[in-house]
Automatic annotation (TrEMBL):
<dbReference type="InterPro" id="IPR010390">
    <property type="entry name" value="ABC-2_transporter-like"/>
</dbReference>
<feature type="transmembrane region" description="Helical">
    <location>
        <begin position="147"/>
        <end position="173"/>
    </location>
</feature>
<feature type="transmembrane region" description="Helical">
    <location>
        <begin position="56"/>
        <end position="75"/>
    </location>
</feature>
<feature type="transmembrane region" description="Helical">
    <location>
        <begin position="230"/>
        <end position="251"/>
    </location>
</feature>
<feature type="transmembrane region" description="Helical">
    <location>
        <begin position="201"/>
        <end position="224"/>
    </location>
</feature>
<feature type="transmembrane region" description="Helical">
    <location>
        <begin position="115"/>
        <end position="135"/>
    </location>
</feature>
<feature type="transmembrane region" description="Helical">
    <location>
        <begin position="21"/>
        <end position="50"/>
    </location>
</feature>
<keyword id="KW-0472">Membrane</keyword>
<keyword id="KW-1133">Transmembrane helix</keyword>
<keyword id="KW-0812">Transmembrane</keyword>
<dbReference type="Pfam" id="PF06182">
    <property type="entry name" value="ABC2_membrane_6"/>
</dbReference>
<protein>
    <submittedName>
        <fullName>ABC-2 family transporter protein</fullName>
    </submittedName>
</protein>
Length: 263
């Protein structure tokens, strides 16, 4: 609880410093909104034209997209600089964090925070739009709301674990931008859509090697299609817990091997 209170205090301080530049905040929010809207509109136009893709309707894809967007936005809002560890390793800016009387990861997670309002708002809109339509169709009821919140929470943990493990690889590789493009950016983009669209080898990679499929696809099979039973949701929770545990251990191992730049 003490660490949680300290984390929230540092987050508030970081957000206040970011809000000193209001125009930059508003401009970046609007630009991010436009990028994400254009990305989804391309998919929506295809689905509206053909009705569905391999049995997945527009509303189901909206749900997948919304869950992924919400999970990613929460992770990047409250642990932004985990994704940007490379610049700390290259410039030596990680050294001052080592001297603080708090865990290094906690200090890193509270640097340069900004709430991704545009992404969160769009994620909420997509979920409301899709869930209302699916409820009207009789495929969901109000019990889906707490399940969806649970799915978003586990998805956030999984994305954080993937990002943390990738960042920890930087203690050996230093330059990890290309690795992040694969483990975070490309995999998350792929997982916005049903994994059944992809060949089996890629499905396996997105479920085992980089478990982004458990962020939205696997629990959605249970929630929207009643496939696999409650075990699909329990399995997702287990994957989130194991992923976080392994990522934390990998981070501690990498941090123990860290060598300062000497600057």
């Amino acid at each position: 609880m003490t660490m949680l209170k300290l984390y929230m205090l540092l987050i508030k301080a970081s957000l206040r410093s970011r809000m000193q530049y209001k125009f930059n905040f508003l401009f970046s929010t609007v630009m991010a909104a436009m990028v994400h809207v254009s990305e989804f509109l391309m998919v929506a136009l295809v689905l509206m034209r053909f009705g569905n893709i391999k049995g997945w309707s527009l509303y189901e894809v909206c749900y997948l997209y919304g869950v992924m967007m919400m999970s990613r936005a929460i992770y990047r809002s409250f642990a932004s600089d985990v994704h940007h560890l490379e610049k700390y390793l290259v410039s030596g800016d990680l050294d001052p964090l080592l001297t603080r009387p708090i865990p290094v990861l906690l200090a890193l997670m509270t640097q340069n925070n900004r709430i991704l309002i545009a992404e969160m708002a769009q994620g909420i809109l997509l979920l409301v739009f899709s869930m209302r339509a699916l409820m009207a169709d009789g495929r969901l009821d109000w019990s889906a709301v707490p399940f969806t919140l649970l799915i978003i929470a586990t998805g956030t943990v999984i994305l954080f674990a993937i990002g943390l493990a990738t960042a920890a690889a930087g203690f050996w590789l230093t330059r990890i931008e290309s690795l992040q493009n694969m483990t975070e950016d490309a995999s998350q983009t792929a997982a916005r859509y049903p994994l059944s669209l992809y060949p089996r080898w890629l499905q396996g990679a997105l479920l085992v090697l980089i478990p982004v499929g458990f962020v939205n696809y696997v629990p959605t099979l249970y929630l929207l299609r009643d496939q696999g039973g409650i075990g699909m949701l329990l399995g997702t929770i287990a994957v989130a817990a194991v992923s976080l545990l392994l990522a934390m251990r990998f981070w501690k191992l990498g941090l123990s091997r860290y060598q300062s730049t000497g600057s």
